[in-house]
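Worked example 3 (structure in, sequence out).
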């Protein structure tokens, strides 16, 4: 199983980024795909999830109106479109897959830094 994130970087407050995560080695289309983040000195926290093949989504309250999770099952890829970024969004962002047996898989993370 492999999850590979990309798309992180440095962006100014109010800017946008799109993260991507490509999965392999598991049944992507039937897995719940999520994004988590971890800021320095903080616990890893949930950001957004896509499940039921993409028919359903869920968001952490502080990102609900700014971030959008989507997926392309044909490409085994999940995305996180992040708009109106704030300094408090600065964190390492991790892709997570949870398969039908509730096994969890994690990517290596991609850094997002929001700073002027």
């Amino acid at each position: 199983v492999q999850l590979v994130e990309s798309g992180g970087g440095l962006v100014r407050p109010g800017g946008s980024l799109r993260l991507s995560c490509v999965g392999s080695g598991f049944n992507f289309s039937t897995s719940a795909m999520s994004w988590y983040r971890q800021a320095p000195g903080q616990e890893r926290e949930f950001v957004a999830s896509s499940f039921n093949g993409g028919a359903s989504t869920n968001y952490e309250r502080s990102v609900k109106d700014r971030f959008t999770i989507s997926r392309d099952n044909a490409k085994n890829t999940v995305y996180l479109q992040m708009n109106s970024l704030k300094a408090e969004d600065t964190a390492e962002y991790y892709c997570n897959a949870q398969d039908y047996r509730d096994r969890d898989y994690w990517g290596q993370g991609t850094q997002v830094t929001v700073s002027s």
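Notes: The radius of gyration is 13 Å. The CA atoms of residues 33 and 55 lie 12 Å apart.
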